[in-house]
Amino acid sequence: MEYSNAYIESFIQPRSDLLVEMESFADANHIPIMQLPAIEVLNQMLRIQKPSNILEIGTAIGYSAIRMALTLPDCNIVTIERDVERVALAKDFISRSEVANRITVIEGDALEVDVDKNTTFDAVFIDAAKGQYMRFFEKFSALVPSGGVLYIDNMYMHGLSDLKLEEVPRRKRTMIRNLKNFSEWIMNHDEYDSTFFPVGDGLLICFKR
């Protein structure tokens, strides 16, 4: 059964002027941010989990970091972004929010950034280069203790993940191949209970046993 967008959006609470501004800015400048239905599900899962700290891979303009921090008033968030212009935008938007003191933005490639191996995160949110999800997961899941959760967005990749590889545009085949390989790998991983939520562009939630 399919539901209309109007019906789905009737469950979404109004956002602050800053968040609406960020949504409009992202749309006008073709900057991908998490779709509203998906971030509502993510935030509800976070309310249930109640993490005290979150690592985000892929800051973009800081939208999801702010949304998560607003949802969890006692949570601190570290977020990593490699695009210099987006880092500047994120820092500006975050500085204008009421949660700026709980969000730390790190500029750099997440695969190259050194993270203290003695640091742990209750949750990791991955929303960066889709073709690198396996590498992101392998690097940062080590920082998540038993009982922690990894949340991964864009698993559906606008429908491309549902196509046969030869049906995918050639320029995106490597990315989709990597994404499909990651999907199969994590769903068969004996250390995680993983569930795919068909919301937004596809949200994967992986509970670490």
Keywords:
209 residues, alpha/beta, Rossmann fold, seven-stranded mixed sheet, 7 helices, 17% strand
Describe the structure.
With 209 residues, this protein is α/β, with parallel strands linked by helices. It has a single domain (5-208), classed as 3-Layer(aba) Sandwich (Rossmann fold). It is 36% helix and 17% strand. The chain contains 7 helices and 7 strands, in the order αααβαβαββαβαββ. The chain has a 7-stranded mixed sheet with strand order 3-2-1-4-5-7-6, with helices on both faces. Helix 3 runs parallel beside helix 4 (63-71).
Largest sheet: 7 strands, mixed
N-to-C CA distance: 33 Å
Supply the CATH class: Alpha Beta
Fraction of residues in helix:
25-40%
Query: What percent of residues are in strands?
Result: 15-25%
Classification by helices and strands: alpha/beta
Unreliable residue runs: none
Please list the strands of the largest sheet in the order they lie side by side. 3-2-1-4-5-7-6
Give the SSE order as H and E letters: HHHEHEHEEHEHEE
- The CATH superfamily is Vaccinia Virus protein VP39
Tell me the radius of gyration: 17 Å
Mean pLDDT across residues = 92
Which overall shape is indicated by the principal axes computed on the Cα atoms? globular
Briefly note the CATH topology name: Rossmann fold
Number of strands: 7
Number of individual domains: 1
Gross CATH architecture: 3-Layer(aba) Sandwich
Number of continuous helical runs? 7
GO molecular function: magnesium ion binding; O-methyltransferase activity; S-adenosylmethionine-dependent methyltransferase activity; tRNA (uridine) methyltransferase activity
Catalytic activity: 5-hydroxyuridine(34) in tRNA + S-adenosyl-L-methionine = 5-methoxyuridine(34) in tRNA + S-adenosyl-L-homocysteine + H(+)
InterPro entries: Cation-dep_OMT, SAM-dependent_MTases_sf, SAM_O-MeTrfase, TrmR_methyltr
Pfam families: Methyltransf_3
